[in-house]
């Protein structure tokens, strides 16, 4: 009999390949635009900014961060810590928002990164423990698949972080992924005016 997986009340499900794609693009473009190099991302700061943008208040929250990755995305670009296998699996940190625990799940030859992402999505949304789901997915690769899966979920609060406003109407929320990333890279608002 399979052991029941205990999940936190809030789960972030992140496609590492998409995070790398966006970080590399943002860093390159803003360094050119601002005429200066941007610092590396402190991952604990980025997770905190994402949580705040997802309306998580200070307190004793438990936030579980699930990374889905394949071989090319096993290390996060311009982040520290960055190694999903060695540094970001089975570890946690705490701050005023609560405890952030990390688990990194690699796709193997038998399953694509996309299919693994949706397998974990199903586990998360089926869990009675989970109340809030924060999603960062490779929508450019997945097409409508995530939107269709999200629309079937009615009992959970869901927040999708993406770089563009979703094309489809949804009962769920979305937030701009660029803002917490820009803050993590050290881009100040007054530099953009």
Q: Counting H and I runs of at least 4 residues, what is the number of helices?
A: 6
Q: How many DSSP-defined strands? A: 9
Number of domains: 1
Helix content: 25-40%
Low-confidence segments: none
User: How far from one another are the termini?
Assistant: 58 Å
Please outline the major beta sheet: 7 strands, mixed
Order of adjacent strands in the largest pleated sheet: 5-6-3-1-7-8-9
The coarse overall form would be globular
Strand content: 15-25%
Task: Report the C-alpha radius of gyration, rounded.
Answer: 16 Å
Class of secondary structure makeup = alpha/beta
The ordered H/E elements are EHEHEEEEHEHHEEH
Mean pLDDT: 92
Quick take:
The chain has helices at residues 16-34, 43-53, 113-126, 139-142, 145-151, 178-184, and strands spanning 10-15, 41-42, 61-69, 79-80, 91-95, 98-106, 132-136, 157-162, 173-176. The strands form two sheets. A seven-stranded mixed β-sheet has the order 5-6-3-1-7-8-9, sandwiched between helices. Strands 2-4 form a two-stranded parallel sheet. The protein is of the alpha/beta class.
Which features characterize this protein?
alpha/beta, 193 residues, 6 helices
Written overview of the protein:
The structure is a single chain. This protein is α/β, with parallel strands linked by helices and 193 residues long. The protein has one domain (15-191). It has six helices and nine strands. The chain has helices spanning 16-34, 43-53, 113-126, 139-142, 145-151, 178-184, and strands spanning 10-15, 41-42, 61-69, 79-80, 91-95, 98-106, 132-136, 157-162, 173-176. The strands form two sheets. It has a seven-stranded mixed beta sheet, with helices on both faces. Strands 2-4 form a two-stranded parallel sheet. Helix 2 (43-53) packs antiparallel against helix 6. The protein is globular. The model has no long low-confidence stretch (mean pLDDT 92).
């Amino acid at each position: 009999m399979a052991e029941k997986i205990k999940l936190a009340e809030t789960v972030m499900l992140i496609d590492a390949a998409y995070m790398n794609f966006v970080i590399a693009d943002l860093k390159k473009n803003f360094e050119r635009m601002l005429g200066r190099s941007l610092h590396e991302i402190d991952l604990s700061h980025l997770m905190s900014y994402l949580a705040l943008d997802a309306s998580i208040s200070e307190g004793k929250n438990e936030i579980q961060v699930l990374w889905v990755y394949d071989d090319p995305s096993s290390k996060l670009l311009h982040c520290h810590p960055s190694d999903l296998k060695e540094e970001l699996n089975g570890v946690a940190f705490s701050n005023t928002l609560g405890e952030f625990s990390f688990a990194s799940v690699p796709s193997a030859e038998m399953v694509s990164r996309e299919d693994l992402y949706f397998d974990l999505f199903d586990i998360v949304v089926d869990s009675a423990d989970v109340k809030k789901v924060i999603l960062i997915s490779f929508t450019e690769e997945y097409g409508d698949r995530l939107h269709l899966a999200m629309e079937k979920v009615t009992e959970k609060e869901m927040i999708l972080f993406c770089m563009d406003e979703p094309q489809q109407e949804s009962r769920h929320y979305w937030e701009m992924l660029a803002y917490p990333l820009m803050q993590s890279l050290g881009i100040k608002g007054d530099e953009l005016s």
